[in-house]
Amino acid sequence: MTSDDGDRPYDVQPGDDVHPGKPVTVDRYTVGARINHWITAVSLVLLALSGLSMFHPSLFFLTVLFGGGQWTRAIHPWIGVVLFFSFAGLFIRFWKANLWRSEDNTWLRRIRDVLAGDEEKLPELGKYNAGQKFVFWGMSALIIILIGSGIVVWDEYFYPFTSIEQKRIAILVHAAAAVVIICVWIVHVYAAIWVRGTIGAMTKGRVTGGWAWRHHRKWLRELVGKRVVGKTSAS
Amino acid sequence: MFPPIPNPPVAPTSPGFSDKDLIRRSASSVPAPATRQTEVAKLIDVSKCIGCKACQAACIEWNDTHQAIGVNVGVYDNPADLTPEMFTLMRFSEWENPQTNNLEWLIRKDGCMHCEDPGCLKACPAPGAIVQYANGIVDFVHDNCIGCGYCVKGCPFDIPRISKVDHKAYKCTLCSDRVAVGQGPACQKACPTQAIVFGTKDEMKEWADFRIKDLKSRGFENAGLYDPPGVGGTHVMYVLHHADKPEIYANLPRNPTISPLVELWKGVGKYVGLGVMGLAAAAAVVHHLVAGANRVSPEDEANAEKLTEGRHS
């Protein structure tokens, strides 16, 4: 079921650890990673709210959250800059564990079992499953598209550098990418809610052993194997 | 000579139109009844313009703008482009007529065309920041402007300019305040040659016909009216002596329309966008109702405990 690279530690990350007990607890995110994540999360939500207020007239009322239309227009790009650098931090932390693995193809082929929650029919997975990797790489690509197109329409500082036609293309791309990233965000938040026990990973930094066994068994085995002397973790 | 507009009466006059006479309002709908008034128009007869810039001076004076003193960039255009303080601009082009080998000095008074279908208004996200009055004048309401620059992207003529001072969009108002009390725009009032005339749109078309016939009789066989249908016609029109080649007049667009990119973005795009996001959220809710929560079982916990047995902590 697992691929040959199952024995080789590949996605245990700094700070990941397992603590025996009843129940077993597993450290999944360091305090730095969590702060980094929540800065990104707050930025993304603020960007979505301020962006949507300028996207559809029925949502213009959202500008009151930012102190009115002028403030919304002025602050939106700056939040974008915060998000870009904050996400860059997450990217550096997580990219390695999000590299595509052969079991991810199997996981995708059995997407019906995934959606049904039949995880016993799925291959053992490392720290992230293919869905999480989609969210990671999707966010990465979309944030690059959004910051790039956003700079083109950031008239305050960048107006003279592009033509009006280029700005028209940029704003359309920006709006389309924003719609997609909001959908990716919905998938991300929903998955965290649907898979119970997940949110603690980003609040307290840890999950239970059962959660890790159920959803990321390969990662758990690797964590256990890391510390167990003379005992192999491979199945 | 076109009959001049009489001076205003000394007694206070109630305005002929106001913010209660809107036919379009950006990012919002117009309260009924949105009845149409007689359409007005400004006609700029390029063939009569002598390039004196009295219109620019009158515009600055009436609108109380303060265009910074610029530098000579080698052409007569002054300032070099429209600015938040300069709503109208004489654009000078030198054109060699291939038929006559004559050098023609073309002078076009650039500024807002007051489109019947305004791209700026279509693109504007701020409710009521751009309005179209029942007589066709397109005006910016600065109190509602958020300075996003979407109007710049919506405009097929590259007219609106965003102020670096108050971050609001500016352009020609067609002197809506003057027109409301029966006056013509300041530029029209100041024009010494009647290259600018103002009246109802029908009157202006009629006057243009007269001018075009006159020009044709003088050998300008392609003289014609510029009232581009791609934006539903405009409330600022040109008489051009070479109407077959509008580009020679400082790149006046041949067939201006609202960019399809803007139509897509602020047309169907905004509904599709909301729809897609709504569907994603709905799919999540439905999935949860159908599949239920994905919970960790006691066996999962037991397996994890078994796995960690004998492990050094």
Automatic annotation (TrEMBL), chain A:
CC cofactor: heme
Signal peptide range = none
Q: Which GO terms describe its biological process?
A: anaerobic respiration; formate oxidation; respiratory electron transport chain
Q: Name one GO molecular function term.
A: formate dehydrogenase (quinone) activity
UniProt cross-references to Gene3D superfamilies, sorted A to Z: Transmembrane di-heme cytochromes, Chain C
Per the record, its GO cellular-component terms are: formate dehydrogenase complex; plasma membrane
Q: What is its main location?
A: membrane
| Keywords carried by this UniProt record | Cell membrane, Electron transport, Heme, Iron, Membrane, Metal-binding, Transmembrane, Transmembrane helix, Transport
The transmembrane segments are 38-55, 75-95, 134-154, 169-195
Listed InterPro entries? Cyt_b561_bac/Ni-Hgenase, Di-haem_cyt_TM, FDH_cytochrome_b556_subunit, Formate_DH_gsu
Compartment(s): Cell membrane
Q: Which residues form a coiled coil?
A: none
Similarity annotation:
Belongs to the formate dehydrogenase gamma subunit family.
This protein's name = Formate dehydrogenase subunit gamma
Upper classification of the source organism reads:
Bacteria, Pseudomonadati, Pseudomonadota, Alphaproteobacteria, Hyphomicrobiales
UniProtKB/TrEMBL annotation, chain B:
Q: Where is the 4Fe-4S ferredoxin-type domain?
A: 40-59, 103-135, 136-165
List compositional bias (Pro residues) regions by residue number. Answer: 1-12
Name the needed cofactors: [4Fe-4S] cluster
Q: Which residues bind [4Fe-4S] cluster 2?
A: 59, 172, 175, 187
The subcellular location is: Cell membrane
Q: Which stretches of sequence are listed as region Disordered?
A: 1-21
The residues listed in the UniProt record as binding [4Fe-4S] cluster 1, with positions renumbered to this chain, are 49, 52, 55, 191
Tell me where it mainly resides.
membrane
Cofactor note as given? Binds 4 [4Fe-4S] clusters per subunit.
Q: Where does [4Fe-4S] cluster 3 bind?
A: 112, 115, 120, 155
Provide a GO biological process annotation: formate oxidation
User: Where on this chain does [4Fe-4S] cluster 4 bind?
Assistant: 124, 145, 148, 151
For molecular function, the Gene Ontology terms on record are: 4 iron, 4 sulfur cluster binding; metal ion binding
Q: Name one GO cellular component term.
A: plasma membrane
Q: Name one Pfam family in it.
A: Form-deh_trans
Question: What are the record keywords, sorted?
Answer: 4Fe-4S, Cell membrane, Electron transport, Iron, Iron-sulfur, Membrane, Metal-binding, Repeat, Transmembrane, Transport
| Matches recorded under NCBIfam families | FDH-beta
Question: Which named protein is this?
Answer: Formate dehydrogenase subunit beta
